[in-house]
Amino acid sequence: MSFSWTPHRFAGGALALDVANSVVLRDDSARRIDRFAIGEQMRDFPRAAAEFCAERALFGDIAPVAVENEPDFIALREAIDHYFRKRILDGGDDQLLAGLLGALAKVLREASPGTLAAATAHSALRLIAMPDPERMKICGNCGWLFIDRSKNRSRAWCDMAVCGNRAKANRHYRRKKEEIP
């Protein structure tokens, strides 16, 4: 099966969230896909981020993560997901924040400037300091993290063109099925 990084895969609104969203169907162990488990996909991510990521103007072209730094980068990705998911659902957790800050410090000490790891760490720091954290949400369809930048803060899906359409089509199908005698 062929895979490519498309604009939909950068629906998070911040590089750190797009990195966290590199795990598809995170809560479904049977269907879970870790896009960074395939080295080529992880190496191609920075080029696609420079084209599609909402923060591309901040980070520009970024280099892939050095092979020796990959385990720390993956640990950072998981800390980002755990902390922000908990913050959205329950308002945060000091233990998870401490874990995220530790992962950020380790990556910033070891990663070269201009790499995906360093840019992701800076993006996560910006999210921690985000002035309106209630804008961060979890997609009602796929479970990805995203920033709701809509005027009335009512966005429910990471990407209307994909997840929004799927949810609406599913709802329509269920209604039509209920109408059949």
Task: Provide an overview of this structure.
There is one protein chain. By secondary structure, the protein is mainly alpha-helical. It contains seven helices and four strands. The protein has a two-stranded antiparallel sheet. A hairpin with an 8-residue loop joins strand 1 (23-24) and strand 2 (33-34). Helix 5 runs antiparallel to helix 6 (116-128). The model has no long low-confidence stretch (mean pLDDT 90).
Notable traits:
two-stranded antiparallel ribbon; single chain; 7 helices; 181 residues
Helical stretch tally: 7
Biggest sheet statistics: 2 strands, antiparallel
**Poorly predicted residue ranges:** none
Percent strand equals: 5-15%
Strand order of the largest sheet: 1-2
Summarize the model shown.
The protein is mainly alpha-helical and 181 residues long.
Walk me through the topology.
Layout (H helix, E strand, L loop, with lengths): L14 H6 L2 E2 L8 E2 L4 H14 L3 H4 L10 H21 L3 H17 L5 H13 L7 E3 L6 E3 L12 H20 L2
Antiparallel strand pairs: 1-2, 3-4
Helix pairs in contact: 4-5, 4-6, 5-6
